[in-house]
Amino acid sequence: MSIRPIAAGLLFTLIPWTVAADHETFSLYTFDSPPYQQANPIPGGPEVTGETVETVRCAMEHAGAQVNIRLMPQNRARFALQRQLVDGYFAVDPSPDMDEAADISHPVALEKWYWFYLGQRPDPTTAKIGVVGGSNEEVWLIQNGFEPFVTVSSTEQLPALLKRQRIDLALMDQQVMETLSEDSLALGQTLNREFLRYAPLHLYLNRRFVSEHPGVLTRFNRQLPACMEQHMLLSADEYQHVAGQARGLIQDLEQRLNLAQAIHQGPVYDSFTEILTQDTLWQALAPEQPTPLASEILGLPASQALKQWQDEQGGLVTELLLTDNKGALVAMSQLSSDYWQGDEPKFQEIAVETERGMERKSDLWISPIRYDASTRQFQIIVSVPIPLKEPNNGLEGILAMGLAIEKALHNYERLARARSEQVPMELPVAE
Fold it and tell me: What is the mean pLDDT of residues 219-235?
């Protein structure tokens, strides 16, 4: 006799039929994965907390929706969403099967996945790989032609399997492994690690829910950047690496283009009111259509030089914007979403207005990691001042440069791996 009808019947008793009900509170499911999602015991029952839970709850609340978040094993949650038994399931790596069953949000988290191993890193194509069953890592491995040797029910089991040499490699998120090390200080075993990929994880909403609540997903996506920001800061080492890389790139660009001269060759406006008027029109048409002013700026020699230099960077540089000391664009490598940058951190963290005029506030600003929906990748923004020769602290304008975060940090991870091979990292292994 088939067990599928029985399993489905049990699932119906465990999950409220929320799709047919009036959605005053939306039901979302995720899985246990500290520090991203975890049960926090409180009076009256456990509460689901964690970095990604905070992000999803924040974006939903600002989108005008209340949510009830519960934990569920990953395979069961996928099954429930695909049969429209729950409103949504989050912290999921995109997959064709999920795309067929539900609508995907912008990323709600960015994980760093590593191979963990003893001694020298084995070849993943021939190694015995261990992974949590039904996890994002398992789905990714199978999609990319790797066959897991062992699947386990919890992350705690993977270090133990490495210690006993039952597996050669374990694929896990960096923060998940670090959380294990904090929770099991009495147990120690030397593990090495090698960076594999940055994994953007998403919220999936079932299609019936999306059709019954038009606009919720769009509003949710719009709120995500602000809600994610506190969890997307670079580490101190990553910041220093990006700062050094950015300074080198800007120095190379300045050998090709006189940035101060390019500012003076940009469009001239009569007043700040005109800047705001042009900005309103610009935002109404971008990115589908440039305004006459945007077309004029894109056609300038400085903009063409910025575009050519960006194209030579192999995808590392995603955008270049050059402004005057009021924050108005004078050159750009591609069409920006707005004309006036003066109300944004990339300008405000560099420039400050004093009695003597606009002056430099700092020599470098690096943003948190943000998801760029137009390019479908995570990036950071680096901005630097373009100084006046006189007075000494005067400001001509600023240069803002977008960097693809995975490419920007890939060299950093390679250097970190080289250091870790000389001094192996200490991580606990559960018995």
Answer: 90
Q: Is the pLDDT of residue 412 over 80?
A: no
What is the per-residue pLDDT across 257-270, written as a single tens digit (0 to 9) for each?
999 999 999 999 98
C-beta atoms surrounding 89 within 10 Å? 27
Record the pTM: 0.76
Q: 238, 228, 182: which is closest to 201 by C-alpha?
A: 228
pLDDT digit string (tens) for 100-114?
Answer: 989 999 999 999 899
In 3D space, the residue among 201, 219, 207 whose CA is nearest the CA of residue 63 turns out to be 219
**Neighbouring C-beta atoms of residue 58, cutoff 10 Å:** 16
